[in-house]
Description:
The structure holds 2 protein chains of 2 kinds. Helix content of chain A is 77%, strand content 0%.
Amino acid sequence: MSLTGLFLISFLIVHLLGNLQLLDLSVEGQEKFNAYAKFMTTFPLIKIVSYLLYFSILFHAVDGIYLAMQNRKARPERYRSWKPNRNSIWASRNMGLLGTIILVFIVLHMSQFWYVMHWGEIGTDSQGNKNLAAVVIKTYQDGSAGMIMVLLYVLSMAAIAFHLWHGFASAFQTFGLNHKRYTPAIKKLGYAFSVIVPLLYAIIPVFILMAKN
Amino acid sequence: MDLKLKIWRQANQNSKGELKDYAIKNVSADSSFLEMMDQLNEELIDKGDDPVVFDHDCREGICGMCSLHINGEPHGPENATTTCQLHMRKFKDGDTIFIEPWRARAFPVIKDLSVDRGAFDRIIEAGGYVNVNTSGNTLDANAIPVPKADADEAFNAATCIGCGACVAACPNASAMLFVSAKVSQLALLPQGKVEAKDRVLHMVNQMDLEGFGNCSNVGACAEECPKEISLENIARMNREYLGASLTSTK
């Protein structure tokens, strides 16, 4: 869980840096983004990393489900009185629920953009590149459907934020990296990361929707 | 003080248990939780009823025998305190108190509130010891120098009394805090280094065989531990396990 989790955390950074380009909605900005999208789908090294990424997402999900099933079996009879908030945070006990929400989001997100980029009907821009920017803008500006998509996106980012709130530092603990001096710093970094990164992601579709008017 | 109790009654491991209501009057605020249970049992025996079975021994907070999941928490609401050291002044007159056994597949109920913690014994048997030469030329333990910081850390881990509150508190019923304390107390000392690799592999293997859940670093165990065993021990065990499984030649 932790190895794939840390890899997915690193993916979040790279993916965010690329997609923040969508905050420039001028024609040049969109063409820059389309050129970037072409590079990300054709450059061989990125291709290899992308397969590693698909594998990591699937492994992280399947392993998580397997472990959750084992954990459920480990306590067949539930407590009638149970006050977990006195000893742990909500996110740490609901990683499976949060992960399921995130997985549903990933399927939706990839069907909207990744699938369309590879095999869907998609126009080209003046440079001859597939016009992914137009697909993204249409998705989030398309009337009430676009509004729902923005809302789902923002809610999914909230799920990622809670998932990371526990997951970031937890990944280090699993590897045995626990130190009196460094662990508090890792935790603080994790909390900052889990708030800032999903927030920056959520700004993108909200910005695109607002730019419509 | 007068209290309402909701106590788990279960005839044996295979029967279905349920919460039963009891009312108890005139409990002294100065009595311990177990003395309150004794008072209830005396009243039940006087009436000809079956007394509530619960585990207890030293009643000084050092033997690890007492348990009880009280009002949704192992060993009750007081931090760093075993049930035997919990006093009734922590409750209010008229309170309703839920009393349940530790719940885990690896801790089957023997009767009522008493559970079989033999799984912990089998984990210790799997590797939680050091082999020492006792054939006549025994070395004085104090002759081996140990850095003070290491000795302190090992001692902190060794304060684990094996009560099982960590398993009871964990949403996954994982035994990682207990096992990691027992791995750490030896891994930190020169005497424990010789068998370190086999120890961690065997103890973790036995832990999994017993049917405990997996650690997802929730941290409830360390919060509820009456001896305040820290999560650093789990990280140390993870390190030991990772290293041993990569380098063990067996």
